[in-house]
Design a protein that fits this description.
four-stranded antiparallel beta sheet; about 475 residues; 3 domains; Serine Threonine Protein Phosphatase 5, Tetratricopeptide repeat
Length: about 475
Amino acid sequence: MAVQRKFKKIVNQLRHQDLYQRAKGIDQLRKSLQSGASIESLKYLLEEAGSNFPKSIEDWDDGSYHLVGFCSEFALQELITPIEKNFEAYSERAKLQALYLLISLKSELARDAYIRIIEKNSKRYSLDIDVQFIFEETNWAPELVKKLLHLIENEETAVSIFHLILLCKRNSISLPFSSAENDYIIEQIKVLYKLKRDSYLNYDQDYNLKYVYQAWKESYLIVRTEMGIYLQLMQYYFDDSMHEYLKEALEYKDPYLKVDAVISLMEHGVQIEKEILDYCAHNIESAVWFYTKLNEFSKKDMYTFTEEHQHSFVKNRLFLYLITHEDFGVIPDEIEIIKRYDTSNYYEQEVTYYLTKFRSQQENWAENDWMAAYVGAYISEQIPSPRFYDETITAFTKWDKYTEDEHKAQLELLNKEENDKLGQEVILESKPNWHFGTYFLGFLTAVRTGTAFGNHDPIYFLLLALLWIIFLYKV
């Protein structure tokens, strides 16, 4: 079947010098989804996506991305060849979209094309290997790490490949490595860990929450994430050198890294001082991460959790809620648990909420002094446990304004209003409507958000931050 004429017109319009005409072209492309497209037309669009388009200062004005995004609506194996053929000519966002399309096809042909693209272009472009999406949606991981193992000498791709190896190990997925390849992996873990360790030690002496989440932000979180991957890998690739690295990490000020070291050492029968375990279990950053890792490796019998630890889980949840809140976004200096409320939810399941108060001495918030927040809903029968249905909320109401029960009533009402609003809200988009690619990234970002807050894995939080940056930039 020949290329449909309407698509040739759309491509010409996307190349028009007038911005308004290009916007109309994007809209026409969106509307074309309703009538479908022939395989020949899709191949044509993937080829044209690699051609030149007018330069623009508008984020949405990316003809290459929109053409690849349109083709992403059609999960056809025939699209693999034109993607690989034209990949290098795509825009930065179109490259990302093309890789997502290959992953979503899930086939061996798509996998092999993906591997060839990464091998050929990893040193020329910044191509993120979407580790979580690949691992969750395909069975590619063992073959991918086998074929791309040589790229671990490239610092930019090494962390993604090691992350894939870690996920396989954590999920008992066999990896097809020879003895020589395993030895090579061990040596590379040491080499790269030394590099990251040197970077981390520049932060360790001055470690505090305000630096981590406000001053250092992404620069430090990247170092933390990569250090965490290597410390966790050491439990699977263990020798005397790894043992010494892990013992040193017990003294790190970063509680996430301390937990990673504790678990890796526990796996090899090393006794950890109770003082260190208590620190991990009660620290406002690591409390949930410590519980999660003990549970993951069936080691909960090695440490006893109580209602006091539940308070640490609650503080951890409120801490993360506040630092990511669009109206707050700073570190709370103090959090106190005031009262526990046991009730039942809509499904008649027993749940628990905690009335809390918090305050910050930072600019714009110090004058408020203590403010009320409601944290939950935790599954009552599982307490002590960090598992919850997320209904944590605050109105930043001054604590002295109401009684405890009045705060509870106000926050429960606010929760109900927020839930009702979400159920009724209609989003009107003023820019050209999203196509599959943006919906896909939006869905992926939402899933990652739930996963990150569910397991408190710092690796997830870094991926989540990067996804939000990409997603918000796109829309």
